[in-house]
Write a structure and sequence with these properties.
The chain is α+β, with helices and mostly antiparallel strands. It is built from 20 helices and 23 strands. A six-stranded mixed sheet has the order 17-18-16-21-22-23, with helices on both faces. Strands 2-1-5-4-3 form a five-stranded antiparallel sheet, with helices on both faces. Strands 7-6-10-9-8 form a five-stranded antiparallel sheet, sandwiched between helices. A hairpin with a 2-residue loop joins strand 14 and strand 15 (432-441). It is rod-shaped and about 135 Å long. 37% of the residues are buried.
Length: 650
Amino acid sequence: MTHHPDLQQQQETPHQLALLSHALQALLAANHREQLLTAIPRLLEPLGVQVGVWWLQHKELRLHSISDPRETEPLEQVAIQAHAQGAVVYTRCGRSSHNCAAIPLYERNRIAAIVVLKRRQAFGPSAQDYLEQLAQAASSRLTSITEQAEAHLMHQLSMALVTADSVTALAERALALLTSALGVQHGIILQQQGSRMRVLARLDVKQPPDDCWQAHISDSQGLFWIVHRTEQPIFIDQLEQNPSIQSIAVHPVGVSNRPRARVLLGLAHPEPHPWLPCTQDLLAMACRSIGLALEGAIARQRLERVLELSHKAALEDSESLYQQVLTSAVELIPGAEAGSLLVRKGECFRFQAVVGYDLESLQGLRFSEQDHLKWYGQHPAGWYAGEPRILSSELASIQERSASSSAGQTHLVAHTRRIQSNLAVPVLYQGRVLALLNLDNFHDPQAFGSDSLEVARFFATPVAALLHQTHIRQSLAEAALSDALTGLANRRAFNKFFDEELARSRRYQQAFALLVLDLQGFKTINDQLGHASGDEALVRVARALQKTSRKSDGLFRLGGDEFAAILSRTTADRAIQVAQRYAKAIQAIQIEGMALGVNIGLAVYPQDGTSKETLLRLADQRMYAAKAQRTSILRQEDSISYKTLSLAIP
């Protein structure tokens, strides 16, 4: 008796519905991807089939399970065919030419696995309908499992991040959640700063025998540096020749469209481990959320630093504040690893703080605003608007730009040879550039990007107010340390300068000289020609000393007709030459035909003494001895005798 096909299908329909109902219940009970893939072969047993399951990883099919390992190769060929076509495939396979069906399972409209079935009997319409409905249900459940896991993790992540009170706390909480959710044993979050990676957080479930991250961090071609430059994540299922970790993922943390990944996440397994597409999606979502939270935390950190500097501005001296401003800028502005701060002093800019350079070798350099405009290199309107500019060695010769802006200052050009990228920030206050903040990177021509510019603009505004406040305070302090008539530093400044020079010379084991000057003929000018002429004589003496001195020398009016000079890094022979020039310059001054003269006492550290009191006493004694012998300069050759030098007092 022959059964009609329609009648047979009607008879199979209730059985198929029962099977499908049971399958749906089993799929809904699966809470993990692994549970679902393991359950599918059992759900297909009523069809009398051999089953193989392949899952997709990095666009390649990997065997998950198979009921008969001898059938692996023919069934895999059918799976490959279904993957290539992106659709259900019904065909014949194997040496026995059995009937095969390959059913793709989808996760978010992307093939996640392929189930291959083999049996003698053909897959009729009823079986095909069952298989396709089962595939739809499994695909829906796969997507649901992934979305639920993502939602749960993202909820936990957002709750943890919103309560973190610092960048470090935020990174530690994020890493703890991710490693737990993904079941990894090693995790790390790094922040790139110049040529190094700074650890924000690290977690090891089991301590590895060595530092499993070191090779990927220290080498410029390591995985973290590659991701830093490309902003593309790297997933490796099995590493070669690494005893500590066998599987690693490195992912950029933060928003996209940045020139560089500044924060990076690393996850690792001690055993080979597949990084599934769903895991990669989850990491991408998590890293975006962590990145946004980190940006907020870092922005708060910058604001706190500026507020801290504002507080210190009222308490600390300008030199200390300049250094703290620069150090904060290098630390907080992305891409910076060194820098300098040049502050306006009158019409010139001078180095006041450096990071990564030698300040002492740069302190004597002076730059005009025109010099800085050449270095800035863009339209002058940007300079006067305080707009930061980026200079890269890929686009311009930094050394040539430096040479044109610092003509004759070859020492500075040598410093710029290492620079691969520079961010120059004119610090503007009320339309006037108060300072130039230079931030440098020695390793990466693309170190600075749009994020660097954003932070530089934020940083420049409050720093300008700080520098203006410091400038006003310094001007008042300088006024208190200046002689109102001559413009030279006063006795109070002399004591401060002397103490600093003594400490510096002790530290670097360098000589310096103290000169004490007492004018001759001044009292006669003052008495006979009047106080105005006496004042003119003092002013002209001050100018003569300034013209004859180095910029690094300290010149002082101690009071009345007494002056002093402190000559840094100066030996006795050199100090005698300077004293002779001072005497000649002063003797050349005449006020209405009346000449001036000078007696100079000289003492040199350390050969004449190592204390302030000893050096002052000896210089005074020698000045009075010169006055007694009516000569300009005496130098003590030994403890008994004096040698009279040239230039007798007229």
